[in-house]
Every structure is written in C-alpha cells, then in structure tokens.
Amino acid sequence: MKDTVISEDIIYIGADDHDIGLFESQYDVPNGISYNSYLIKDEKNVVMDTIDSRKTDEWISNLEKALAGAKVDYLVVSHLEPDHAYNIKLLADKFPEMKLIGNAKTFNMLPQFFDIDLTDRKVVVSEGEEINIGKHTLQFFMAPMVHWPEVMVTYEKSEKILFPADGFGKFGTLDTEEDWTCEARRYYFNIVGKYGMQVQALLKKAATLDIKMICPLHGPILKDNLEYYINKYDVWSSYKPEDDGVFIACASIHGNTMNVAKKMEEILNEKGAKKVVVTDLARDDMAEAIEDAFRYDKVILAASSYNGEVFPPMQEFLNHLKGKNYQNRKVGIIENGSWAPSAAKCMKSTLEGMKNITISENVVTIKSTMKDEDISKLENLATDILSK
Ligand code: FEO
Predict the structure, then answer these.
(1) Which one of 51, 98, 135, 280 has the fewest CB atoms closer than 10 angstroms to its CB?
(2) Domain count, the chain
(3) Residue whose CA is at the smallest distance from ligand 1 atom 2
C-alpha cells in the first residue's frame, strides 16, 4: 500500500512514473519508479528537491495543494541529476523570493544545467552546517560521489528524519507491492555500486545521528526497522558477499554453452551448494545479472568464443562489473570454442584488472558440445568453487 504520510509538517509531493520503461535510458523498470520530493511547512517553507520533467504537472499540483496558498522560501538541492533537479528553474521562476540551498559544488555545476541569476539567491552550506526554519532545523552533510560530486544529505533535527538523496532508493513506484531488498539492491549496485568507499563514509556520518525515518528520492519512505536497511547498505558498500551461493553467468550463441551451464548447475546442487542461479546474459536483464554477481560469494562465467575473443554479452557483463569496482570473489571459468577457444583468456584478462578476485585453476574448455569426458572437468571445477 502506498504510504506517503510523514508528519503534520512534512508532506510528500513526489510522483510515481509507471511508463518510463528504461530509467536513465538503461535500466529496465517493469514497475516504474518514483521521483520523491517533500515540502517542510514551518515559518519558512522548504522544498526538498524537485522532480523529473516527466511528472512536472503532477508535482506542481501536489506542491500547490500542500502549500495552500503559502509560498516557498527555500529549495534544498541535494543532487543535480535531472530526475530530481529538472524543475529547479521552474520553481525559481515561480517563487522569485525563494533561495536555493546547496554546497559549493552544487553552485559550480548548476549553471551547466540552468540559466538562473543566483545573485542574492544562493545559500552555500558546508559540512554539518545548520539552518533553522522555525520548529525545524536542517543540518547538512556532504556525500561526495554518492554518486555525483555535489550530493549532500539533510538531517531534520526536530523530527529526526534523514533525507539521504539517492541513498536507500529503489526501483518501482510507491504503489507497487514488492519486496524492498531485491529492487533496492539492483538500484544500488547499478547506480551507486562503484562508490562503495564513499557510501561507507556517509554511513559513518549517519551512525552519529538518531534517525527515526528515512525519506529517499526514490522508493518508499522507510519508517520501521531502519537497522535492516542500514545493514544492507553496509554490506553492499563494503563489497562483502551478501549470500552463500553460486551465480552462473552464461553467454551462449546456439545453446551449447548454456547446456554446459545447466549441467554445472545440476552438479553444484548435487554437491550441496546452498543456492545456484543461472543467468542468460544474452537475454536476461543485465542489471539483475550485475546485482546477482555482487549478491553471491561465488561466480562461474560460461561463454562461447567469438571473433578470437569472447561472445560480446559476456564482455559487456565483465565491463560493467569492472566499472562498478567488483571485488572479493571466487570465480570459475568455462569456455566453449569450435576451433580456437579464446573466451577463457579474454575473461581472465578482464578479471585480472579487478581487486581480490581468485580465479579457479580448473578452467574448463568445451569443444562445440559437451561430451561425457567433460563431466569430470566440470565436477572438479564445482568442487574447487565450493571449497572454502
Ligand atoms: Fe535519482 Fe542520481 O538521481
């Protein structure tokens, strides 16, 4: 059930987007996404971020209703990415007395997006600085590179609410009934994953605050059991595996390599693997494959050779992992090749550029189709991968 009630003075004014299809032009979002924005009503009225151009009308209507004739005194700009910042100029034009709150980096970058005369309109805040707006006090903490340089989070001291920008965000609209963890994890690793160190730094700051509620820029408002969400972020951002299991990522041209991957799944299950997941990199959601690679502690890559290299869906997958600082995992390799197998060499070469990746020495080479004599090689790889 959509729950956007925050408090008497803090009102949700964001919108659900069911029809975007591809968020950021690359992430499939079957259940859409929400662009969250909030109004804090007090002696000074504060808007916490604007929203995406796709929902401007709904947002303005929500804002006007919540204001009930009052005006906006401040706009807090947590993040300049257009899914939150698109309507900054519109709001600045609508309320000419309104001031914009951001940090030095915000105001360096803002003119790249908007032509707004900021003379006498910008309030530059730095780490830990506070602004009192009546009963409420906003305190600002910098979160550089989570996942843009200008990102900052806001802590409202009287109601103990954290506004963490994209942090704790999730794919899926607010009226979608679904598990938080799965789509929050897919969101985290694909959008923020590269910046684990910076997220860890932010979590250390958050640990000093008494937080009763988290109001992110995407996904549900988090009200209960906050420790659960914070622990997930701690595991994800420290690149520790979350679950004991084997993720088999397969890039197969005609299905022969997939047959091997399925056989490997069977062998791993027979040997007592706690969980085995197989993904078809050529057809399944790439963002989910990336999520699962981070989720499990062991990975097996199975790919056909192609053009003297590796079948491109596998290379694309590995490039994404490298870009997102993939590390601390044990990896097995299965290659297929009909005349000059090249996939293993190519996969190894990309893996060697990653931190703390252990590649099993039991590399399995299949020539075109799996034969009986290949089974023992697969069993050896399975044994090695499952060994501690
Ligand atoms: Fe939701 Fe980085 O924007």
Answers:
(1) 135
(2) 2
(3) 81
